[in-house]
Amino acid sequence: MMQNSNSDFEKPQTDNIEFEIQLTPLALEMLTNIKDKRHQKALISRIDKLKIEPEKQGKPLTGQLINYRSLRAVGQRYRIVYQVENDKVVVLVVGIGLRKEGNKEDIYNLLQKLL
Length: 115
Description:
Distance between the termini: 59 Å
Radius of gyration: 17 Å
Strand content: 15-25%
Structural class: alpha+beta
Number of strands: 5
Shape: globular
Helix content: 10-25%
């Protein structure tokens, strides 16, 4: 008698796909402008984790940034804003910065003006 189980052949395996990480010149500039090297290192490490299942990380944004996702990092203070390009197997990081709600230097406010 054959057992009914959730075997691997029933659904395509997407867990093993590794996405390429690309940073826009703006995101790279934002990252290098972060003075605290520990924060930089933590952000780089968090960005690197986007290689695997980037759609399951972060949250989808709304409004003018509707095609992007946001991921919290470094004690929830920083946001990494990225776009998943499934057809190219690429994660495009477009911005990195502090969340300062109500402030013109807030990462989301800056990106709405720059993207």
